[in-house]
Amino acid sequence: MERDGEAKVYREVFCSRYHHCFTAVDPSLGPLVLSVCLEEEENKLRVILRMKECSLHGTFSTSLFPHIPSAVELTKMLCDRVTVSKFEAVSYLKAPELITAFDEHRVSPNFKFGILYQKDGQLTEEDILSNNDESDEFKEFLSVMGETVQLQGFTGFRGGLDVCQGQTGSEAVFTSFQGREIMFHVATKLPFTEGDPQQLQRKRHIGNDIVALVYQEGQTPFLSNVVKSHFLHCFLVVRRIQREEEEEEETGGPSYQVSVTAREDVPLFGPVIPEPPIFTDRSLLREFLLTKLINAEISCYKAESFSKLEHRTRSSLLESLQAELTSRSQCMMGDPSPSALPGPEGARGAFEGSGGFIENFKRAIRVRSHSFDTLGVTRKTSGSTSQKPKMEKDGESDKSPGPLPDSLGPTELKDQASPQEET
């Protein structure tokens, strides 16, 4: 399981120890928030420098210094581009809470994934999204992934589904895995609209997921550019394979074949697909797929389109954090006019007029969740070539910017099981 280990360093290391935090605004780098912790038992200084582009972590032996270095000296040891000559100490009592929220804004304990059901002979998005009945084999596979729950009154992570009015169907598939809650948007359980070939009620959920799982029946390959979406960056394709009855009795159940495809700018992620890519144990299949789904989403956020949006979100949050820490600290020190601090509206507005860092944090996350409609994404096409999609014209927002890599199906599984991970 991939994790953003650095995101929780401040909570797990700094918050349990005596430490100091400092803020500054660099002429070229913008807002800076520095945290310094002295680990006397190990004779070392641990430092975190938060900038718009990233957070830098450093650990220095105290034996390197004749005296404890200043905030400016520590900062320049981590980043030689820093030109600021002075930091302000943070004295706000709730600073650790705000800094923790900033550091962990990318860390989520909850995930939502789509599940598409592809029958034999289905090659279009309309065909796949129009499936209503579920075969016994598909129901069995869903039971591997999670538990079918009633949405009415459901109190767990709902993944955007309606748990009050029944507008997104009556049931869904939900599971918990390694401390995370996962809600699946199963196409066949989402509302079906007569006379709507696009099935927008289903598309609005699955099309807004980042990773989707496709369950195949039959020999029809899955074309990865079938589902038109700016969000979907990765598909896991699973097919139940027919084996001799004697073999099935020996293994205790059916066997499943797994393949993966992702857009070309999604970094590699594990676990690596085994060779052959066949699972006969239900528990191993479940663990592999859930781990692969979570890691896929984490890696997708590092793709070009998502990373640009993350940088804008981070920049906005850091500006708000630095302004609020500075203003609150001024108030703690008895300064009656924190609004006189540098800034277009004064730092007081960062936490009074705008609702504070926590409100800005919530606002930035909401803005990020609605910002993908305008993304233009480079996708991989057959033959390992790439193309930059044209910007859409008005009225074409439902069109995909380009195909995902390759088609996945039983006849192509060995060569294309995971184009990023295996050759």
UniProtKB/TrEMBL annotation:
Domain of life per record: Eukaryota
Protein name: Rap1 GTPase-activating protein 2-like
GO molecular function: GTPase activator activity
Gene Ontology cellular component terms for the protein in this record: cytoplasm
Start-end of Polar residues biased regions: 379-388
Start and end residues of each stretch annotated as Disordered: 330-352, 376-423
Domain Rap-GAP: from-to ranges: 99-321
Biased composition (Basic and acidic residues): 389-399
A Pfam family it matches: Rap_GAP
GO biological process: regulation of small GTPase mediated signal transduction
